[in-house]
Amino acid sequence: MMLLALDTATRMTGIALHDGSLVLAESVWLGINHHTIELAPEVALMLRRVGGTPASLTGLAVALGPGSYTGLRIGMALAKGLALAHNLPLVGIPTFDILARSQPHRPEPMLAVIQAGRKRIAGMWYKWGHNGWQSQAEAESLTWVDVLDRLKERTYICGEVDSRGREALSNEPQAVLAPPAQCIRRPSFLAELAWEQVRSGKVSDPAALALIYLKPRGESAL
Fold it and tell me: pTM of the predicted model, to two decimals?
């Protein structure tokens, strides 16, 4: 049993192999919009490192978005291609759920962010509940100024907080910034979320699985 997880939602790309009990391999890197030429070779290399091939896979997971339009499409295309070619179950997981899954329990609400281009970020607000972090609203397009205006209480902020964001938030007493190592969206957590869905029978028809895009500012739901 071996599940391949693919996260190409942003320039921070991640892939992982998980057998349901162990993370067999994991790789995360900050690319420069090279998903097209990097993804398939990196997957092939990771499979070789664990002595596997595409035929060894028993499941697939992919980040659904929001995120980069091009990046998401590349990850989905590879996931669907492998799923259809090898008759594998495919699970799609929203991008922010991957990031939230890796965050520790905290008393404050949480804002998870990813880079959205054009000096904007996409953010989703969470609170801790009985089953971990629970989203409180849909993802939205923001600037760091918007974030500062919204911080009415101490808030834990994680994800793709770039140097501009850290500078903007550095003197804000309501902002509790996660350390850089805790901000990485790790594909092994995507794999764990997917395993849970596979075990409960919640898999998707590869042909029907759709990506989640962030609506332009001012529009409603994703």
Answer: 0.93
